[in-house]
Amino acid sequence: MKKDINQLICNHQQFLYKRARKIAPSREEALDLAQDTILRILEQEAKFDRNQNFRTWSIQVMRNLYINQYNRRKRYRVFATDTKKMVQLTKKVINEGEGNLGLAFIENAITGLKKPHKNAFQLFFQGYDQKEIAQQFQIPVGTVKYHIFEARRVLKSIVK
What we know:
The chain is an all-alpha fold.
């Protein structure tokens, strides 16, 4: 049985690479995707139905792998961790003087928040979702939502 799957992989290796080139944006990513697909096929050999077409099954395995990799990359993007950098990423001010005043004002407002509100708000602003923040601080998601809500409410009142 192991010999059968190895033979199928050898026969369809070129097909898998060509298919990966259609999905992945670069040549290197396509090679990685094809290799990961072959590895996953070997790991999941027991799930392969011999009555099913191998190409169809391998394309589905490749597609699922690519979607998982894409979502993982999206989830773990690197964001600015310093509040100065965070504000600079979002500001669109032509006049440097006004920008510096606004930046200092926002930084002071953020540092004036209570510590749990500030920490949750900064992580949320950096792109982490509420579940990830809850896991990091080991608190319920509802508490994270409350901290973010309170931080936004306080910041809105300060800005007004």
